Amino acid sequence: MPVAQGGDDIFPVVQAARCIGLAVPPACMNDVAANAALLQGYADLLNGFVLPDTCEPAGEYTP
Fold first, then answer.
1. Which residues make Cβ contacts (< 8 Å) with residue 14, sequence separation at least 6?
2. Which superkingdom, per the lineage (predicted)?
3. Radius of gyration from C-alpha coordinates of the chain
4. What is the distance between the alpha carbons of residues 24 and 59, in angstroms, rounded to a whole number?
């Protein structure tokens, strides 16, 4: 979903970039904001997944 230049979705991206010392060129800001929104959607999906207390942990990961 495209983000309007200077829209409300841009401000959190600018703040986060400043916090970690990252410079995001203005030409890339819409794409960065769109990717941040996409990743937030995935994070919300995972955070909303309820596991029962009886769920066993996964085994050891071996690549």
1. 24, 29
2. Bacteria
3. 17
4. 40
The reported pTM is: 0.62
Alpha helices in the chain (DSSP H): 10-19, 29-47
Write the burial class of residue 46 (CB in 10 Å: 0-12 exposed, 13-18 middle, 19+ buried): exposed
Q: Token pair 């200077």 is at which residue?
A: 6
Contacts of 36 (CB under 8 A, 6+ apart): 9, 12, 13, 16
31-42 pLDDT per residue, tens = 998 998 899 999
Here the tokens at position 36 are 């941040």
